[in-house]
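Researcher: Re-running this chain for the archive, since the previous output was lost when a drive failed. Same request as before.
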Amino acid sequence: MNRLRVRIPAIVAAGCVGAAAASASNDLAVVHAVALMTALVVGELLVLRLEDGTGIPVAYAPLLVVVVGFTSTRVAVIVAAAVVIGAAVGTDRRGLRGRCTTSAQRLAVGAAALGAYQGMFVALGRTESVAVVLGSLVTAVVAMVVVEEMARRGQRLPSALTARGVRAWSALGATGVLMALGYRGVDGRGGTGLWSVALFSIPLIAAWYSFERLAVVTRTHRQTLQALSMATEMAGLVVDGHGRRVAELSERIAHEVGLDLSTIEHIVAAAHLHHLGVVTLDDPPAPRAPDRVAIVADVTAAMLREIPALTEAARIVDGQGRHARDLRGRADDRLASQVLKVASDFDDLAGDEPLRARPALEALYASPGYVYDRRVLEALEVALG
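Model: Regenerated structure tokens:
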């Protein structure tokens, strides 16, 4: 956030200087191109954060204005320049390779938006009417979503079409369409030029701020869970790092078996807290006691059920104390409990010793078939690489 406070005013100031210099050419289109390129660069720095920590850039909204307001050649120049500048001044910490990947992704989204808009506009007869222009813009938004999803899949990132992601795309798409309609008008009438971009950027900035606050809350929630998971470790009731390792491994396994992000969040919470109930026992069972997992799971689940936000985690922890054959309820709930059970039992055997990973995995495979779900074991093997 502090970096943005410095970089965004500097970019806006540079854009104003560039627009002022362009005005000397008496070509209004050049001035607008510089202004919109500045908006794209600023939009690259502002992203709507999703549940997994990735984001969708605000730049996708003014991109629609560029697509409808300029020729194909100028669109290519504006978008390419904005992408290069955005990569140079951006806050991406993934290094040169990561920035190149992001730049290629932004160019692909821009090309998809341009191609979809012009293709639909031509298909509808090039008629300057509200229905045709609006339909072409909506097609461009759909193309952007499709290309973004394909790029994320190519990078092995989770889908952005989650509950929060759908809201982000709705905000960006609706605002971008309004910006574009306001900028160009319909049939040469009703256009307000750059004022439409400035006007509709206000709710977009508000949406960005809301997503940032939500991301902070999510991050704080996870940090709280991590702190609670350390209580049993500091008391010597669980080996150090068990909660963190199980949470990370559970998350990877859950992605491999195809669970949705909401369920994965509940699994991560359950993984951090699945041993918390042991601190309430006057006589905790021995680490190798055969019924230890079931006893601790029952106590922990009873604790978590008292907290409304953790009822789903309680259900997962409760199932973790049972064999695969004994689980009831929804398929996703059974699978989530098995993910936690497999990750926890694997860490009990392997800990943080890489050399023990293969024997631990073989031990889980050698267990009776009713103990673990085979799909989860295979997902564990993939997650371990």
